[in-house]
Design brief:
InterPro entries: Znf_C2H2_sf, Znf_C2H2_type. GO terms for molecular function: DNA binding; zinc ion binding. Residues 37-65 form the C2H2-type domain. Helices cover 42% and strands 11% of the residues. By secondary structure, it is α+β, with helices and mostly antiparallel strands. Among the domains are: 1-34, Double Stranded RNA Binding Domain (2-Layer Sandwich); 66-110, no CATH class. The strands form 3 sheets. Strands 1-2 form a two-stranded antiparallel ribbon. It is extended, with a radius of gyration of 18 Å.
Length: 113
């Protein structure tokens, strides 16, 4: 039975998990920069297979399944779509969003900064 106890802790940060294999993956990906999945069409590399598929769909095939109903923004990731709406259209500020990109988008789409 899985109890959700996160007894495996990263010694380089705050990351905790209940699975030893997830901790190893975290260390390999985040701290060691190991990226085993490589795009056949460009130099893109990633640690997760799903990221490679999203990259291929978006960059090389032009497939963007999530479209903003308020402007021309399109993305392959649902999380990016939600973040776009929150930041651009609802004005919610996130520390992980680069302000220059937000301002560039606002200026291009709404003539405001």
């Amino acid at each position: 039975m899985h109890l959700g106890i996160k007894n495996h802790k990263c010694n380089q940060g705050d990351y905790r998990t209940s699975q030893k294999s997830a901790l190893k993956k975290h260390i390999d990906n985040i701290h060691l920069g190991i990226k085993n999945y490589k795009c056949d069409l460009c130099d893109y590399k990633t640690a997760q297979k799903s990221n490679l598929q999203n990259h291929s769909d978006s960059v090389h095939l032009g497939i963007k399944t999530h479209k903003c109903s308020q402007c021309d923004f399109e993305t392959v990731l649902e999380s990016s779509h939600k973040e776009h709406i929150d930041v651009i259209h609802l004005g919610i500020k996130f520390t992980n969003v680069i302000n220059a990109n937000i301002n560039q988008h606002r200026k291009a789409n709404f003539n405001t900064i």
